[in-house]
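Two proteins were folded this term; both appear here.
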Amino acid sequence: MFNNIYLNIYYYIIVVMDLIVETDIYEPGIDENGNYMDYIPPSSKFKNGMRCPCGSRKEHNFDSRQSFTGHIKTKTHQKWLADLNTNKMNYFTENIKLNETISNQKLVIAKLQRENDENIKLIAHLTKKIEYKINENIVGDLLIFD
């Protein structure tokens, strides 16, 4: 019984979580001088929505080129683009640190997943032992009546 619950939860996490479609995140283009510049992505990029990381409309998904074109003209977006160009090296070093963090977290997740798999097996084994003991006690109690 316990084993089925864990398997159902595991199945739910694997199957259902894979069905979620994430929106694309806008990436500005780079000109010949290495500076970030705005460009309007093709319509196909807006199929699942487009999020802009500039922060002017947090968690807003743009669903068309037209709405996104209006967005990139806002002061907040323009300031964000200027800040990107000003802090290129800071973003580069931050990116390196974040990649290291991701690598370490992948190792931790893999270790925890192995431990979780071992615990699921242990729970299944102990559940079978409990069921066996319960059945053994029932048979023993029935033998008393003989």
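Next, the second protein.
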Amino acid sequence: MLFAYREGDAKVLPANPYLKQLGCGRQLSIAISDFSKIEMKVGKVVSVEDIPAARKPMYKLIVEFGDGASKQCVAGIKPYYSKDDLLGRLVIAVLNLQPKSVAGVMSECMLLAASNETELSLLKPDKELSLGSKVS
């Protein structure tokens, strides 16, 4: 969960028949001020390593965000991407989540991806942007 909220802060929208048809059901509504707290930036994967101790197939990635800033990320994307596919790839990442230990490795950011039941696709800019470009 990206947002901490107190009882009564979040609004649940009435079921939209179109969304229900798509299997979405009810949607949680958040204020734009909450969304603006998420720091998302363009980064570049500069290192990819296996995590042998992980129960599920995972990589430890180092993602560079420009100006010498980089963060470590643990991602369960190994079934979808090879190391060669990831190295040098531009990605979109959330930078201001609390760090968390995953499979004994500290994860300092989260890559954004779209997925369905069988596929996963990392989000990336459709044009060359400088590292650290803000995503909003």
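The first strand starts at residue 11 and ends at 12. The chain has three helices and twelve strands. These notes refer to the second protein only.
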